[in-house]
Design a protein that fits this description.
By secondary structure, this protein is an alpha+beta fold. It has a domain at about 15-270: Orthogonal Bundle (Hypothetical protein af1432), CATH 1.10.3210.10. It is about 50% helix and about 10% strand. The protein has 22 helices and 9 strands. The chain has helices spanning about 20-25, 30, 55-70, 80-85, 85-90, 95-110, 135-140, 145-150, 160-165, 185-195, 200-215, 220-230, 255-275, 275-290, 300-305, 310-320, 330-335, 350-355, 360-370, 400-405, 405-410, 425-440; strands spanning about 5-10, 15-20, 230-235, 245-250, 340-345, 375-380, 390-395, 395-400, 415-420. Strands 3-4-7-8 form a 4-stranded mixed beta sheet. Strands 5-9-6 form a 3-stranded antiparallel beta sheet, with helices on both faces. The chain has a two-stranded antiparallel ribbon with strand order 1-2. The longest helix is centred in the N-terminal third of the chain and has 19 residues, at about 55-70. It is globular, with a radius of gyration of 24 Å. The termini are far apart.
Length: about 450
């Protein structure tokens, strides 16, 4: 008798299970390609264990999405105040309910299929204007190969429904390039995958990246958190008014686990994702790709995207590192020989108090002193601030912002690094020690009177 449920061992979730139709999706090349795309780019050059790939992360996101869906759609978990707004999710014995569970699993599995080689390391600078990995993901989900899989997957899935849940509102675009419309249930289901507070994409990458990097920063009690997730009316304006649209929230007993998740995110960004050596390797990789790729950008044609993995890029880096006349030789050599640019400046609170643009001012000054080719500047500031979500208490629903001092005290993730070519590193450090106060002092605007 043919096996109907297939089990895949996973170091984070123990087992990930798929049925035969879902395994057909997993076996297609757009998903199998992710076996050859590192989850954390060149991070393994700093954390040697971080060699895991997008493939296993995608499986983990699918597994967690299923767990969250099953918890929040239980009849005893759905609040009366939101049940009528979510008819697609209210009846677990209904075919519509089963349809959306299947769509959610496939959207979670496919949410990363549009990633470039080495994931985020080279995306913004090396795709044509208007393109990102989400747009490529949508194109692949809608491709003829995958549409045939969706049609054969009982009860027959719509590619656009998968695109919606995989990317979420504001990211999911129709074939005409306009934003897609979402029902209330579709917004909730997309939030399960890509939500800022409780998205399982975030949950899995924190747990998985922490495990493979060999650090404890990304660990939190995801079992307790998932068990206490609920679909709740969102309190308006940070208050306790329950008239807002439904969104993912948490029972009061899970608030500590929610705090731990968001603290884990801050710690992983500070200690792993924005490790200065990791960041400069990303810059060297972008420098190489900008010289190696035709026209300095990745192709947006689906067949070209599917043909390009980390393997092809690493092979090209090794060739370029040994051939001085080859485009991209210098950054390739620096990656292979671990001869990266060295950090000479990191943002400091005392500098920011004097000048919010202190990092940029230092970078420009060092470039002027040592030459633009000898300097690389890296800056980042977290886009979203305080996470505010509903919390279910015995006396009703409240805003997390009104209940948690911890959430209000988590700093915004922000970095400013200035790197200099190794041969001039010590000279640059000496020069900065003598001049940094003058460099960061804001200049007064002068006029002609």
């Amino acid at each position: 008798m043919a096996k109907r449920v297939h089990e895949i061992r996973d170091p984070i979730h123990v087992f990930v299970r798929l049925d035969s139709q879902e395994r057909d999706a997993l076996d297609c090349w757009p998903l199998q390609r992710l076996r050859h795309v590192h989850q954390l780019g060149l991070t393994y050059l700093i954390y040697p264990g971080a060699t895991h790939r997008r493939f296993e992360h995608s499986l983990g996101v699918m597994e967690l999405a299923s767990r969250v869906f099953d918890v929040v759609t239980r009849s005893d978990a759905l609040q009366d105040s939101v049940r009528d707004q979510l008819p697609e999710l209210a009846n677990r014995e209904d075919d519509v309910h089963r349809y959306w569970r299947r769509v959610l699993r496939m959207a979670a599995l496919c949410h990363d299929i549009g990633h470039l080689p080495f994931s985020h390391a080279a995306e913004e600078e090396l795709l044509p204007r208007g393109w990102d990995h989400e747009r490529i993901t949508a194109d692949l989900i809608r491709s003829n190969e995958m549409v045939s899989i969706w049609r054969n997957m009982g009860p027959g899935l719509e590619a656009d429904d998968i695109v919606k849940l995989a990317l979420g509102p504001g990211r999911a675009m129709g074939t005409d390039g306009s934003p897609m419309d979402f029902t209330c249930a579709e917004e909730i289901l997309a939030e399960i995958i890509v939500g800022h507070a409780f998205g399982v994409d975030r949950m899995d990458y924190l747990l998985r990246d922490s495990h493979h990097a060999g650090v404890a920063y990304g660990k939190f009690d995801h079992f307790r958190l998932i068990d206490t997730l609920r679909i709740l009316p969102a309190p308006l304006s940070g208050g306790d008014d329950e008239s807002g649209e439904p969104m993912l929230g948490v029972e009061e007993g899970g608030l500590l686990s929610a705090e731990a998740l968001l603290l884990a995110r801050y710690m992983m960004y500070s200690q792993v994702y924005f490790h200065p050596v990791r960041r400069i390797y990303d810059i060297h990789l972008r420098d190489f790709l900008g010289e190696w790729l035709e026209g300095g950008v990745f192709s947006t044609m689906a067949q070209d995207q599917l043909a390009m993995t980390d393997n092809e890029v690493l092979s090209a880096i090794r060739v370029a590192a040994g051939e001085p006349s080859t485009p991209g030789h210098d950054p390739a050599r620096r990656i292979c020989a671990h001869d990266h640019y060295r950090r000479v400046y990191s943002r400091r609170p005392s500098d920011l108090a004097k000048n919010p643009d202190a990092g940029s001012a230092v970078a420009h000054a060092v470039e002027h002193q040592f030459g633009a080719d000898a300097v690389r500047y890296d800056t980042y500031r977290q886009k979203q601030g305080l996470e505010d979500f509903p919390v279910l208490r015995d006396d009703g629903v409240a805003s997390s912002a009104s209940m948690s001092d911890v959430l209000q005290s988590i700093p915004v993730v922000a970095t400013d690094y200035v790197f200099v070519v190794p041969e001039q590193c010590e000279a640059a450090k000496r020069w900065l020690r003598s001049n940094v106060d003058d460099v960061i002092e804001p200049r007064e605007e002068t006029g002609d009177g």
